[in-house]
Amino acid sequence: MTEYDLPHPELTTSSVFTIRSSISIDAPKERVWDVLLDFASYKEWNPYIRTQEIVSDLDKTPLLSQTAAPGRRIRLRLHVPPTMNDASTKGSTAEEILTHVDGVSFRLAWRFATPARWLINAERWQILRNGGPGDQRTVYETWEYLGGLLAYVIRFFMRTKLQDSFDAMSHALKERAERVD
User: Fold this and answer.
1) pLDDT of residue 97
2) How is the chain split among helix, strand and coil, in percent rounded to 5?
3) N or C: which end of the chain has fewer CB within 10 A?
4) pTM of the entire structure?
5) Cα–Cα distance measured from residue 162 to residue 172, given in angstroms and rounded to the nearest whole number
6) C-alpha dist (Å) from residue 77 to 56, 93, 135
């Protein structure tokens, strides 16, 4: 079985709408994966997710180990619309739970950490694939399913801004991975 035979992950939430982005990166999957998992460096390159850190379940303080693993809680500070200028926007914060971290099939996923999933739920996937047989390029694919009652409001007011944010992150990831040695 090749990576092209792997099905997209099954949706574990009901979805009102989906945001997607994809880009070809002139770097091997391992390098792109390292950039994705280096949460501490997000502030240097990511205009959408300005910070991402693994935090304690109990008191929400950052953990010493920032190693991604399923079940760990992450806190993201988001800029919508995307910008590298932290002074220009206060941004928003979201707490998520890592659900899938697979360095073999290069899949990373999390879901919104809320007990009121009927109100709002979200599930984000990021997958890396080879650009083609014998090709050193990587295809980065990401999508987020949004569901629950508030997803209708988010779709109406924020869909375009979220799409712009996903595309900005994809382009920034490409730039970062292609220049990292």
Assistant:
1) 97
2) 25, 35, 40
3) C
4) 0.90
5) 15
6) 16, 4, 34
Angle of the 29-37 helix axis to the 149-179 helix axis, nearest 10 = 120
Q: What is the pLDDT of residues 74-130, one digit of tens each?
A: 999 999 999 999 888 888 999 999 999 999 999 999 999 988 889 999 999 999 999
pLDDT (0 to 100) of residue 87: 87
Q: In what order do the strands lie in the sheet with 73-78?
A: 17-25, 138-147, 121-130, 107-112, 92-102, 73-78, 49-55
Q: How does pLDDT run across 65-81, given as a tens digit for each residue? A: 999 999 999 999 999 99
Task: Tell which residue, 7, 62, 46, has the closest CA to residue 177.
Answer: 46
Question: Do 48 and 166 contact (CB within 8 A), yes or no?
Answer: yes
Asked whether the beta carbons of 114 and 120 are under 8 A apart, the reply is: yes
According to DSSP, the residues that pair with 55 across neighbouring strands are 62, 73
d(CA 179, CA 115) in angstroms, rounded, equals: 40
